[in-house]
């Protein structure tokens, strides 16, 4: 008999409310401890460590040094292994994801005339090299391949490499290779987990190091990114999936339960809450769950029950829509779905959510795969300061300034005054008479 976690917010004290905000990433101490030696082994042993961990942790018995990088032949073969309908779906999704990210991409440069003859702006250039992490443990993720590859390609990053764990047969998921090639990425390493982050950071005989790594992963990956943050830019924090379904009285609770199960099925370390002020919706959802579980595969039933019957998921009944909004903002979910016939009435009250999906026709599934916005999103309350993965994650921004001769005297005078106040004589000299002497020559 499964007992879904059902919380009435008004009955909880401060500690009880705080406990609802916990995620599996909240305490990474065990992972941080175990990951350290893996990172050190990759740093000192290179490919040999990647092969050893691939065999031990991914059970890829046949993995060899020569086989760490996917070959052209493996790419070609992948297209024969994937159903044509799946290839078509990948093409469709990439089309939308590309359109969205092209729209998001900034102009290469903007300059504004701030004062007559004085110009300033921003210039965007691609980061030289990035690593894209595509998980493969509790599922295979061609979708993550698309979500990470497309913005990197749109940003014109010259060196892009995907890191993904090998399966026990030593292969990379075929649909991931199809998605990589269709998105425009040709380098794929059969390396996953913490060892992938280390390989991307330090490089090995086979792996060319990168400046930045993006992409979601298990707590092993999250812990490795945290430890190597001084060596490689770890990008936004994207760990185990999490969602809130915010439902009001205009929808049926059975629909809310259906959507609650979307992210709950990722793994036992995921988080998924239905938040509603309607007792009827909450009770309908509770009643509908067994029927929905009957339509799921056994492994996904196990994962989602672990989430919804554990401490990181379930149903939260609030006293009002306002209390629901406040809970959502406090929680700062990765995915938020507003399940209401009038979703825009709620949107204005939501400030902290990495993704907000509006209304009964926008379930998280559609955004996970093919709507267009990026589904690699910050987790573990990262949405309080981070947004979704975007083209900007692959671009470096530099300021550009240009002062013409007529504009110079006014700016030089102000700068000189401030330089003298701060006690910087060279700064002041560079905008004083000594400069004028050179400029007049
Ligand atoms: N935030 C997002 O945008 C987003 C998107 C998709 C998926 N996800 C999340 O990403 C996660 C993917 O996790 P996953 O497990 O499926 O794949 P993963 O590739 O992240 O993790 C599997 C790897 O973990 C390592 N590992 C496993 N057990 C280990 C051990 N005992 N010691 C050391 N290393 C070990 C192995 O190297 C293995 O290759 C899920 O939690 C999913 O919810 C998040
Ligand atoms: N929900 C994930 C992001 O948290 C994305 C995804 C891919 N496949 C299924 N789901
Ligand atoms: Zn998902």
TrEMBL record:
The keyword Zinc applies. Pfam families: Histidinol_dh. Keywords: Metal-binding, Oxidoreductase, Zinc. Its cofactor is Zn(2+). It comes from the Bacteria. Belongs to the histidinol dehydrogenase family. This is Histidinol dehydrogenase. It comes from Cereibacter johrii. The lineage of its organism: Bacteria, Pseudomonadati, Pseudomonadota, Alphaproteobacteria, Rhodobacterales.
């Amino acid at each position: 008999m499964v007992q879904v976690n059902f919380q009435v917010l008004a009955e909880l004290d401060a500690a009880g409310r705080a406990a609802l905000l916990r995620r599996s990433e909240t305490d990474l101490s065990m992972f941080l401890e175990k990951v350290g030696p893996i990172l050190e082994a990759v740093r000192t042993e290179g490919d040999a460590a990647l092969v050893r961990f691939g065999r031990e942790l991914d059970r890829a018995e046949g993995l060899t040094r020569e086989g760490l990088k996917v070959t052209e032949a493996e790419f070609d073969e992948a297209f024969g292994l994937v159903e044509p309908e799946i290839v078509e779906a990948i093409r469709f999704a990439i089309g939308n994801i590309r359109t969205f990210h092209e729209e998001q991409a900034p102009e290469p440069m903007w300059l504004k005339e701030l004062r007559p003859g004085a110009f300033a702006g921003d210039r965007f250039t691609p980061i030289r090299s990035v690593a894209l992490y595509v998980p493969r443990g509790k599922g295979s993720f061609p979708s993550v391949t698309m979500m990470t590859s497309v913005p990197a390609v749109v940003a014109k990053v010259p060196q892009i490499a995907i890191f993904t764990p090998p399966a026990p047969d030593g292969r990379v998921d075929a649909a991931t290779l199809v998605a990589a090639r269709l998105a425009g990425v040709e380098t794929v390493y059969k390396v996953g987990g913490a060892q992938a982050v280390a390989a991307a950071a330090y490089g090995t005989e086979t792996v060319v190091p990168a400046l930045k790594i993006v992409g979601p992963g298990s707590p092993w990956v999250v812990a490795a990114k945290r430890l190597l943050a001084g060596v490689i830019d770890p990008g936004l924090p994207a760990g185990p999936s999490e969602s809130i379904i915010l439902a009001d009285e205009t929808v049926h609770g059975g629909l809310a339960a259906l959507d609650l199960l979307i992210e709950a099925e990722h793994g036992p370390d995921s988080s998924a809450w239905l938040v509603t002020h309607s007792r009827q919706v909450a009770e309908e959802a509770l009643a509908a769950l067994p029927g929905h579980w009957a339509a799921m595969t056994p492994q996904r039933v196990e994962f989602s029950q672990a989430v919804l019957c554990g401490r990181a998921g379930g149903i939260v009944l609030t006293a009002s829509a306002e209390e629901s909004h406040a809970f959502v903002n406090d929680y700062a979910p990765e995915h938020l779905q507003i399940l209401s016939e009038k979703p825009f009435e709620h949107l204005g009250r939501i400030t902290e959510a990495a993704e907000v999906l509006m209304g009964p026709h926008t379930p998280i599934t559609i955004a996970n795969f093919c709507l267009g916005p990026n589904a690699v999103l910050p987790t573990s309350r990262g949405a309080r300061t981070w947004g979704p993965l975007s083209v900007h994650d692959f671009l470096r921004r530099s300021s550009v300034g240009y002062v013409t001769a007529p504009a110079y005297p006014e700016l030089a005078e102000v700068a000189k005054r401030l330089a003298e106040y701060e006690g910087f004589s060279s700064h002041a000299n560079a905008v004083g008479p000594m400069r004028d002497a050179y400029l007049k020559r």
